[in-house]
Design a protein that fits this description.
Beta-Lactamase, Heat Shock Protein 90, five-stranded mixed beta sheet, 41% helix, 24% strand
Length: 382
């Protein structure tokens, strides 16, 4: 059985949508299988190894691919494209499947495959969000694509290596060797001044409290994220009021380092209403949105927070005047993607993870020239 008929060739926003017929895929797979020595070597590799035809469809998968497919309930994956096999959210949303959405323009795997089918060896990093029965699951992979000719046709040998642990280690190193160390350094500096008698406790108590709170917050946020990704995070629903909640977020960040020379306001048009949610997780979500907005704002600019109700749902939003480039919009919720450099990239991903997997909400954003950027988190009342 070839999994080809479930996808259409309706159109594309990036890679060609055309697919080989089921019969052609079958013949190509049988032809590749005749290279028994090569197939045996590929089966011995622990990474995902696939051979793709000119339409980016799988005509061979090694033992690791076959075992993964079986775990997904897919007994035959011939004719699928890589993103369809791993249940990529973008492949699932497109009628023409993997490689044909606008977001696919930034996918390292698609880019490597396309380059290899033009005769060029290519390596790129690939960030995927899988749709699973438990919700979204991030994958960070390195895609190595090599071209080769077989029976007069171009094929792609694709090797996908899971680098999620490597990416996670880099992020944690940045957090604990940069952010946490910097904050701990601030506390040490204040303590040194106190010890030397250069300042009084009254003069520095606010700074010491702020730095200590920031240090604890960094550690707790990582503990929450690790628990969330392991499906071990407990949810505690309580009754709250929207304006009281937003004001608590505003006060908590007003003296934060990223808020220097910037304003945080709660929109006067915000509705005040009672709602039930997890206070700690929701605070983390809106706090991360606020922190990101402040980091994206310049001196004397204002970041707005707001709340409202519509069509039986309630929502919170965060707005800043900046506009995200198109490349950023397409990757903003990927775990290892960041506009702040390598070894960063968890904040927006954690917002979506906590809001959608644990609080059953929906995170969306609009970022347009002249209007700025607004992130909205929407919930259906319990």
């Amino acid at each position: 059985m070839i999994f080809n008929s479930q996808f259409k060739t309706a159109g594309t926003k990036f890679a060609p949508p055309e697919r080989s017929s089921d019969l052609e895929v079958k013949h190509q797979g049988e032809s590749i299988a005749k290279m028994s020595l090569v197939c045996g070597l590929l089966n011995a590799m622990p990474d995902f190894v696939m051979i793709l035809n000119q339409n980016r469809q799988i005509v061979f998968g090694n033992k690791a691919v076959a075992e993964f497919a079986m775990l997904q309930g897919c007994s035959c994956y011939f004719g699928l494209r890589p993103g369809e096999l791993v249940s990529c959210q973008h492949a699932a949303s497109a009628e023409s499947g993997c490689g044909t959405t606008e977001a696919c323009k930034t996918c390292g795997a698609v880019l490597s495959i396309l380059q290899s089918l033009q005769g060029l060896k290519s390596t790129n990093e690939c960030r995927i969000i899988r749709l699973t029965g438990k919700g979204m699951e991030p994958l960070d992979m390195r895609a190595l694509a090599n071209p080769f000719m077989w029976e007069g046709k171009m094929f792609c040998l694709l090797i996908l290596t899971d680098i999620s642990n490597e990416k996670r280690r880099k992020v944690l190193e940045r957090i604990f060797f940069h952010d946490v160390l910097n904050t701990a350094g601030s506390i040490w500096s204040i303590s040194e001044l106190l010890n030397a008698g250069a300042v009084t406790a009254d003069e520095v108590k606010k700074d010491l409290y702020s730095a200590s709170s920031q240090l604890i917050d960094e550690i707790v946020s990582q503990r929450q994220l690790l628990a969330a990704e392991s499906n071990e995070l407990a949810v505690n629903m309580i009754k709250m009021e929207s304006l009281e909640f937003l004001n608590s977020v505003m006060v908590a960040f007003r003296n934060h380092e990223v808020a220097k020379h910037k304003r945080i306001l709660v929109d006067k048009g915000s509705e005040n209403f009672e709602f039930v949610n997890d206070q700690t997780l929701l605070f983390r979500i809106i706090g991360n949105l606020l922190k990101n907005a402040l980091e994206a704002s310049g001196e004397n600019e204002t970041v707005m927070l707001g709340a409202g109700r519509k069509d039986g749902e309630y929502y919170f939003w965060c707005h800043n005047a900046g506009v995200m480039p198109e490349e950023v919009k397409l990757q903003i919720f990927q775990r290892s993607y960041s506009t702040k450099g390598q070894g960063r990239g968890i904040g927006t991903y954690s917002i979506k993870l906590l809001a959608e997997r644990y609080l059953h909400g929906k995170v969306s954003f609009i970022s347009d020239k002249g209007k700025g950027t607004t992130f909205t988190v929407t919930f259906i009342p319990e």
